[in-house]
């Protein structure tokens, strides 16, 4: 639903821009250049809550870094913290970010506005902490490629574990944000955005600049666009203060007041229409989720999911699986829950087909619900589920093919070459990233409960990925208690 070209929507953004400085007046954090329309768009999608949290965290972290650049302090003072949290929440709701999104993401707890890392509250204290110089050396700009970003993140992880030790995840996340703030406070806004894109794993994070053609540019210190220049204060201030124009002022002010009131009323109507339309879309989405398990029993088209990298997910026929596995003669593994075959599909792609052991009386609805949950999991360190098969009392799960097998093979099989310590550390970091995604950014949060070397697979580049099993085994995944 694209509305940027609509005059009323542009007027709505103008109204928000005039209200933002007054909302944030008592909070020293400058969020006026944050692209809240982007956050509202992402947070309005039910399946993108993890991405929503990362964008909210990144915008707040960038504003704290700008504050640290001016003051040298890692956030606001304790007496200003509640004011800023209230102002940020109010501002996000003003731009259409759902209230339950800020609650789910833990605004104020998981996402604070003051970073106290093991007693360190200033940029200088972080810069002088042990091994921080290693972080600065590995995070030199530009972070042009994925390898540069990973090198920077790995240096940060090593530094944080040396600094924090075995503290809880909240402390670790706070110190991570403090590390980002320290780095970003040493550079300009554009470079700070580069650091944020790397640290928080997001794309398209751009601080908007004001120009006539960009309705989302809301920086108050920039020269106003024609729409912003139409506010009553600027119209009055634009008239010469010559005594001859006093009567003109008296006639102009009531007219401007009536015009502004009319525009505000029209924008309120537009806002109510948009909210009503979005509520209907969310309700329709929930209804589709309730009926999705029944739809699995019929042939269904290929579906693209929004979270994480783009992936293709579909239902396969038993005939396709049998042909792709050469009549089930390409066994590459066997475990307690089934046999795994190497399968080459008709389009030339290679996948792994896991044939589940006979599941006695499990209904298709229950099996499909479990597949629906797994299909929503998308992360670079989780083995992607490509599809499934339910036919002739058979159950197949189709995963991406991992060329180097399981970590267990490399640790315990005599025919495999031993892994270097550097590779082992990188595998541990990859697994930790996957677990963080499952615990904090899934909706609902999940716990794997069966992490072991045989469930950690390696691709052709020895990148580690966790195999997320079905709940058929009654031990794979369960919802974390809130």
From TrEMBL:
<feature type="region of interest" description="Disordered">
    <location>
        <begin position="283"/>
        <end position="302"/>
    </location>
</feature>
<dbReference type="Pfam" id="PF07714">
    <property type="entry name" value="PK_Tyr_Ser-Thr"/>
</dbReference>
<keyword id="KW-0723">Serine/threonine-protein kinase</keyword>
<keyword id="KW-1133">Transmembrane helix</keyword>
<dbReference type="GO" id="GO:0005524">
    <property type="term" value="F:ATP binding"/>
</dbReference>
<keyword id="KW-0732">Signal</keyword>
<keyword id="KW-0547">Nucleotide-binding</keyword>
<comment type="similarity">
    <text>Belongs to the protein kinase superfamily.</text>
</comment>
<dbReference type="InterPro" id="IPR008271">
    <property type="entry name" value="Ser/Thr_kinase_AS"/>
</dbReference>
<dbReference type="GO" id="GO:0004674">
    <property type="term" value="F:protein serine/threonine kinase activity"/>
</dbReference>
<feature type="signal peptide">
    <location>
        <begin position="1"/>
        <end position="25"/>
    </location>
</feature>
<dbReference type="InterPro" id="IPR017441">
    <property type="entry name" value="Protein_kinase_ATP_BS"/>
</dbReference>
<dbReference type="InterPro" id="IPR000719">
    <property type="entry name" value="Prot_kinase_dom"/>
</dbReference>
<keyword id="KW-0808">Transferase</keyword>
<dbReference type="Pfam" id="PF19160">
    <property type="entry name" value="SPARK"/>
</dbReference>
<keyword id="KW-0067">ATP-binding</keyword>
<feature type="binding site">
    <location>
        <position position="354"/>
    </location>
    <ligand>
        <name>ATP</name>
    </ligand>
</feature>
<dbReference type="InterPro" id="IPR011009">
    <property type="entry name" value="Kinase-like_dom_sf"/>
</dbReference>
<feature type="domain" description="Protein kinase">
    <location>
        <begin position="326"/>
        <end position="482"/>
    </location>
</feature>
<dbReference type="InterPro" id="IPR043891">
    <property type="entry name" value="SPARK"/>
</dbReference>
<protein>
    <recommendedName>
        <fullName>Protein kinase domain-containing protein</fullName>
    </recommendedName>
</protein>
<feature type="transmembrane region" description="Helical">
    <location>
        <begin position="252"/>
        <end position="275"/>
    </location>
</feature>
<keyword id="KW-0472">Membrane</keyword>
<keyword id="KW-0418">Kinase</keyword>
<keyword id="KW-0812">Transmembrane</keyword>
<dbReference type="InterPro" id="IPR001245">
    <property type="entry name" value="Ser-Thr/Tyr_kinase_cat_dom"/>
</dbReference>
């Amino acid at each position: 639903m694209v509305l940027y070209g609509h005059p009323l929507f542009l007027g709505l953004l103008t109204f928000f821009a005039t209200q933002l400085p007054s909302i944030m007046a008592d909070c020293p954090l400058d969020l006026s250049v944050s692209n809240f329309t982007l956050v509202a768009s992402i947070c309005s999608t039910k399946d993108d809550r993890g991405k929503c949290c990362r964008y909210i965290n990144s915008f707040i972290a960038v504003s704290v870094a700008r504050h640290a650049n001016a003051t040298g302090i890692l956030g606001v003072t304790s007496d200003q913290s509640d004011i800023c949290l209230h102002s940020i929440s109010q501002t996000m709701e003003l731009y259409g970010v759902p209230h339950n999104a800020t609650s789910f993401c833990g605004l104020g707890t998981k996402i604070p506005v003051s970073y106290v890392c093991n007693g360190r509250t200033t940029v200088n204290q972080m810069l002088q902490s042990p091994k921080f110089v290693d972080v600065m050396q590995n995070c030199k700009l530009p972070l042009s490629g994925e390898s540069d970003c990973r090198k920077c993140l790995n240096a940060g992880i090593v530094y944080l574990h040396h600094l924090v030790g075995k503290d809880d995840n909240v402390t670790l996340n706070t110190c991570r944000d403090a590390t980002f703030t320290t780095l970003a406070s040493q550079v300009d806004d554009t470079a700070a955005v580069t650091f944020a894109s790397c640290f928080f794993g997001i794309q398209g994070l751009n601080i908007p600049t004001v120009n006539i053609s960009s309705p989302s540019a809301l920086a108050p210190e920039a020269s106003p666009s024609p729409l912003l220049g139409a506010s009553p204060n600027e119209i009055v201030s634009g008239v010469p203060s010559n005594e001859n124009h006093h009567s003109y002022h008296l006639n102009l002010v009531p007219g401007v007041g009536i015009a502004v009131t009319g525009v505000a009323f029209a924008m309120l109507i537009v806002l109510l229409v948009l909210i009503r339309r979005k509520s209907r879309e969310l309700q329709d989405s929930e209804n589709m989720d309730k009926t999705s398990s029944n739809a699995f029993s019929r042939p269904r088209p290929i579906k693209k999911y929004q979270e994480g990298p783009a992936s293709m997910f579909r239902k396969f026929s038993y005939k396709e699986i049998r042909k792709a596995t050469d009549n089930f003669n390409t066994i590459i593994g066997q475990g307690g829950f089934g046999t795994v075959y190497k399968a080459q599909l008709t389009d030339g792609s290679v996948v792994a087909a896991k044939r589940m052991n006979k599941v006695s009386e499990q209904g298709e609805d229950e099996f499909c619900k479990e597949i629906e949950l797994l299909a929503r999991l998308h992360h670079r360190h989780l083995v992607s589920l490509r599809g499934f098969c339910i036919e002739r009392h058979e159950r197949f799960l189709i995963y991406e093919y991992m060329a180097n097998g399981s970590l267990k093979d490399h640790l315990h099989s005599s025919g495999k070459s031993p892994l270097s310590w550097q590779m082992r550390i990188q595998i541990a970091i990859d697994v930790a990233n996957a677990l963080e995604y499952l615990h904090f950014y899934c909706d609902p949060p999940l716990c794997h409960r069966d992490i072991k070397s045989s469930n950690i697979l390696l691709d052709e580049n020895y990148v580690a990925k966790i195999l997320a099993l079905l709940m058929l085994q009654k031990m794979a995944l369960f919802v974390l208690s809130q």
